[in-house]
Amino acid sequence: MKELIDYILRFGNLNKQQTDLIASKAKKFELKKDEYFSEAGKIPKQVGFVLDGVFRFCYFNNKGEEITNYFIDGISFVIDYQKFHSQVIASEYIQAVTDCDMLIFSKKDWDELSNTIVGWDKIEAKIYQKCMTEAIDRRSPLVSEDATTRYLSFIEKFPNLVNRIPLSYVASYLGITQQSLSRIRKNIR
Known about the structure:
The chain is an alpha+beta fold and about 190 residues long.
């Protein structure tokens, strides 16, 4: 619970009563490897805070190919924020790539935090902004770089993931085939 409170306090000041309320709403939750936290075609019902583990955001393109769009590892929120906030059907999957330990908040509990804690909406907006900035910073170079440079950037930005997740997910994220990724990895060793 300390990780969650410490993380939130980076985005605003809260008193003990407010942090106790947040802690009282968070429920411990385990998700096994390959299980979905949120699924395309369904309305997201909860906010997650990752204590340990790796998630990926993915979708299927119009050819039916699975595309990995983003990874989350370690201490961070995991949520399809816009779909959760608007309570509309998600277009992406959020899948556990490893076994994950997390804290979750139901929609009702999350709304209660928003309605009870003065300034919660500002903290929430700052957290969302940080997550969006990180996602853009990690994805932007993938458009203009060659495959080898993209892989080297991936290693730099996600140093703990390379040996923890399937190469097929890495290749999908980089927009290359698994065979190309194997060739790149062999050439840079």
